[in-house]
């Protein structure tokens, strides 16, 4: 920064930021809108069984990587952690689909992932790898995948994610070793532990414990307020973003300008502090990143706020966690930084750039914790750096509502095992306090995006209803040997993915439920055109035509569509035997079963369809089919508006 | 130890050991046989739904605590970790039953745990607390409960165990603070981190990685061999133990004598080493526990083997992990110690004392690792203490087959985050190698004890069978309004816990499945004696007589038994309406459903009964009932001996 040319400097700073921001915004708005935001909610929804449009597509992957680089470089208050999780999941998805046919990247052995469960496992591993590499926390990655991302957990999956993150850790370590001399820019910094605060012996007394509880309670309140504000801002932004890419980019520009103003303007309010004399490091720092920034101050002085704002996020966090100089930052500087980061974090999430939530929350939390530590300085004996760490923990607990995984991630970030009991306490308090106000930020975003996420537990009001109460729509069923025209008509007219098959005389004595047939399997069957003129069973004959993998799950957007079928008038009048592709023992519930109980069955077994069968004999053998949408609160409460949702 | 009186010293040593061993053996053999062994397999089986006899009773709790103290004090190669897990589970069970009525410890609010799920959750928390306190590893405790103990996992449970271990960590820390001055004996030692090996900067190269892989492979082989030998020894011991308490105690005496001989005799084979000159600690150590033991050596010399054998287990492990003196132990001393501990560990587990497996495995693994480190000294540059740690990890991985939880427990034991990638690698390799030979040690013990443990996955051969293939025994069902005599007869003649209820005309148009009624509920109903002369519905009338808690799950051994009922001849001819206590929507499967699919339903939802219904209409509305035992490999393969169990 050249002397006195402050306006030019600002113009250069804001201009460069804006150019980078526009790059990120253009990529996101024009090429892959799904790459905007954190990506963790989408991955979470995917692992719950919601395959939203192009959320894990190759284009999303590319935009996520480069958009995230541009976004972080543009100085936005955004993190790279969420995008890294999304990136990991995208790569895993690409592998799981057998590569991308469009980009000529295919492997044959990958066809073993052509089923829902293995593909979901692979994507869970990808998400775990993302966290592992973002925080250099391999065990934290496993626990994040377990606690936040995955909806179904098996011991085999635990062991697979553990393997994945072990490989990540080994690769990461070799790269760090390789980059030790500084030839990879900022990457080599920090080693495997990013923010080492390993303190000699943190002893704490009752006063400290009270202070820590205060941190937890306030952190919980501020965290839930953060969630509330993010939700409101997202709803506002979604109105703007819906108007088109131009508006999206405009929003990015406005936020970028605001961020630049804050980062460049606010340090002017901070007083200059003389450099402490007993320092190991350089003061003031010359160069891009460091501890004591000179900014507008005279020689031998530094500006605390500039050291926080005009720095990489990692260095800012390192400064806030540091315990070497207790009075490094003025109380006013900490307060301004906290307010600015809190505000910028809220308004930045939701614009059309890949934006993680971890870093803004850690920055705000650490400055809040250090601020509180300074304010309570006379009362509590704990170090302000540790207060910063506990503040970050309380904010993370208050917004994301994780416990074990955050605890381990923070442990692996800071290498301070002796702080573990305090960290656990803070996380528990802040999560409990925040849970009494609203839901976790990722759950909120999933809900706001309208993704039909199945909760792990049944809602209380579901106990008042039975399964048949919520079966929606007219039931379309097929006979065991059905006319091709009828099938085609049903496929064209509805968007159902599963149809019950009912055996009627002459194939059975009385109408009985034969099973359930899937739309995707019907399409494969019709495409093969093995029809018969008469209504006869043809079981064994045409099974030889197909290979098991023909019925495997296709990559996203690659399956057969009903428009792809080419069936002529004559064929429409022919018959096809559905028995070979029918699942003859679908999971069923009786119509009088409590909806809550049916929801548990549906969720625990990870089903997509449940057949509802009649209680009394002598009626048609199936009453209806329950799908994911039938369990959604919007659907149920829409049908029964008189039910009180909270009891 | 007085000079030259070596025989008297041995007599005193062995005699005291034997007295303590007999105390532990008598407690176990006479008062609570269920307290013998580790207890982790039993807790694991309980959490899977197997309530073995008196496994969590108050008497077991008391014997476990005192027996474990005596057993460890008697110098056996046993740990206190497994018993602590069992102790935690017992305490949780005592709380969950509303205290013990027998010992006049009851609380009314605890009746909210009168259902399976909440009680199971409580016991999971107890097990987590046990690990947390045994290793001073709160996060490790949560992960142990998740990975090894619990069969069903919900996010609410994660958060509850985390809360439990956070409380444990806080209490533990206050007690350590309180005991800092040494007034609590050995408890205060080590602080929150028991074996602090926090090394400055462990750098490793390719040669080290190869050495570490070798550790992993050999550790896996030795670990699975350990499991194999433990299994063989257990089977032999169970024949001896079945003969009566006297034989049990005799076995304890023999093993105690053998242990004393090893601990006192083997150090004579070790040469005396002159004390290194540049030491901070005393050498040779005078007193009960310490680093350099004098034993028979001259002044200024120490005996390496004595320093390992005649020491507390904790200090021996600390010595093996220490990196201060690379050549502290001779290669021969390490080899003798390894062989002795491996052998003693195998023969000690299974005798009638509470005996954990963690400490023997860690001791054997650490000496093996340090030995390998010495042998590879010229090849690898890593410290021998770290080799010891990795050896312990490889043995733990090879016997117990956990990954994430062991990793975190070892991390919390040693506070060495930079070793994490290596630890993960070793654990993965040893687990993979060992898994190709046999199952984990706890699974083996569960199987050997004949507990009907439901695996998380269905066995491959189950795909060849359908649900109705394995339904066993004649089906006993009741009418909606049934004669008291019939019910009593069925309860007396069978040990079934669930009976289907079938509504017949005049209560339904055709026979239909009304639902499932539980033995325990039937007993409560019969005990209330609200019978009617005629076959009529009485639904609403007598529901008022009961409180919801009357039907709650009673404490173990406290429920009503069929012998407690006092029903006279006249009442036998009367009727009772079963509708109010019938579960009208039990989970059902169709008779043609693959057994594997039914097993998944059964296991995932944690059921005790599944009703098998006919595929075709017009037949009796229920074909049979599947219970846990019908899914056991012994049952299925007994019915179909021709099926190959591995395909």
Automatic annotation (TrEMBL), chains A, B:
InterPro entries: CBS_dom, CBS_dom_sf, Cl-channel/antiporter, Cl-channel_core, Cl_channel_pln, ClC. Residues 581-643 form the CBS domain. One of its GO terms (cellular component) is plant-type vacuole membrane. PROSITE patterns: CBS (PS51371). Keywords: CBS domain, Chloride, Chloride channel, Ion channel, Ion transport, Membrane, Repeat, Transmembrane, Transmembrane helix, Transport, Voltage-gated channel. CDD domains: CBS_pair_voltage-gated_CLC_euk_bac. The chain crosses the membrane at residues 12-35, 55-78, 122-146, 210-229, 249-270, 331-363, 375-396, 402-429. The keyword Signal does not apply. One of its GO terms (molecular function) is voltage-gated chloride channel activity. It is a multi-pass membrane protein. This is Chloride channel protein. It comes from Olea europaea subsp. europaea. The lineage of its organism: Eukaryota, Viridiplantae, Streptophyta, Embryophyta, Tracheophyta.
